[in-house]
Amino acid sequence: MDTTPSTNDRSTGTFRVKRGLADMLRGGVIMDVVNAEQARIAEDAGAVSVMALERVPSDIRRDGGVARMSDPELIEGIQAAVTIPVMAKARIGHFAEAQVLESLEVDYIDESEVLTPADEANHIDKWAFDVPFVCGATNLGEALRRISEGAAMIRSKGEAGTGNIVEAVRHLRSILGDIRRITVADEAELYAWAKELRAPVDLVIEIAETGKLPVPLFCAGGIATPADASLVLQLGAEAVFVGSGIFKAEDPALMARAIVEATANFEDASVVAKVSRGLGAAMPGQEMSEVAERLSDRGW
Amino acid sequence: MRVGILALQGDVREHAAAVRRAGAEVAEIRTIDGFDDIDALILPGGESTTMCLLLDKTGLRSPVEAWTRAGRPTLGTCAGLVLLADRVEDGRVDQSPLGGLDIAVRRNGHGRQRHSFEARVPCPALSGDFDAVFIRAPRIVEVGAGVTVLASLESEGDLEPVVVQQGALIGCAFHPELAEDDRLLQLLLDRAEGAPS
Fold first, then answer.
1. Looking at residue B48, which CATH number applies to its domain?
2. Candidates B10, B14, B57; nearest CB to A261
3. Confidence label for B195 from pLDDT (cuts 50, 70 and 90)
4. What residues make up the domain containing B20?
5. How many distinct structural domains can be found in chain B?
6. Tell me: the pLDDT tens digits for B87-131?
7. Which chain A residues are closer than 8 Å to B91 by Cβ?
8. B151-190 burial, b if ≥16 CB within 10 A, otherwise e?
9. For chain A, which residues score pLDDT lower than 50?
10. Contact A6 B154 (CB under 8 A)
């Protein structure tokens, strides 16, 4: 008797399928765009994906008020303009916004601290969705809590909209440093690690065995130049999100191409030097002491 | 045996791990420098538009295109299959693949990520099923006369080719490297061993 399962049995929304797309984006640049024209510029420049939103983080910062999910019409316009994956942001804990984004068939949902949180205690139950989620994290415990809720990609938060890389570096070093420390911990110490990180012990044990997060680790929040991208990739990020850094630069198309090339060749300083020449002004940027509200403090 | 992996973007690490499991040497190809002394080439999964742009920027397009069009040993998975195809539908108008494999593919043929899926794909030619992971996968919509179909997916009552071979060129719409299934890599290495150097 033939017991081979029919090839008609397709499983969608599995964890392997969700993290698989994150794996395919590795070594690439995901760019924030606010309209179809910017999306085309991003795709032309070699972006692996675009993040559709109404305002880039530096404008959200400037304008204040409540920042919400983008208008579906705007997202659809961007989806129609490009062939690469389109991501969009939902507020932390706002599962109804996430349901809307899933119905629009965005390729990844970013449960993002850049928008105003909707729930002060709970993040979205991401296992309930077929569409994969990316979440921000400032440290390893936060990353593992998001993964236990179903996130299939983690991005270090950095400080969005500042054009200042210092927070992204701090968060990456914190996440990757703790991963390195866990790989040399003895088995008994893993329980203390889980307690200290407020994270499930099985994920801590997995990290001790593999030496890496169970999902890809990307970097966001403050990347404004090709050298910024090279820096965070050399520190261990696997891809970069660039928000205000491209469309707040003097020449967005040129900056976008330069960051894409620097990302593909992040270990080759001669390439980073070549693409950094004559780029015009990067986004102005802010020193951390000038930042009124830390977006990275949102989420827990 | 030295296997070059086009390392401009995508899931290079999984392919590199597979090559090492097979006991061959990995050469990650980012510039034209490393391209001369490889015995086989892997075009990984990732975003084909990004890879196309970087092929132009790095000057790699012309040697890599000469390699695939001469039918030298190459394995392309997902985006790599798009690059290998002679004809691409629903791509960007300015997106020109490397070519070599006499097939037509439709990019993102199954739709957006929500429709990405896992399925068992029977492959009697390579003695057993694939646990196949399709991520925004291309669909092979046309297969030329010289192309052998190694595995097909049942799709709306039809059989749709998902693994194809033409001489030493092997194309796959899914990601065997994500499931650590090394059979297509082995096929590539066998072809490379038999090929005149």
1. 3.40.50.880
2. B57
3. low
4. 2-194
5. 1
6. 998 767 667 889 999 999 999 999 999 999 999 999 999 989 999
7. 83
8. bbbbbeeeebbbbbbbbbbbbbbbbbbbbebbbbbebbbe
9. 1-5, 7
10. yes
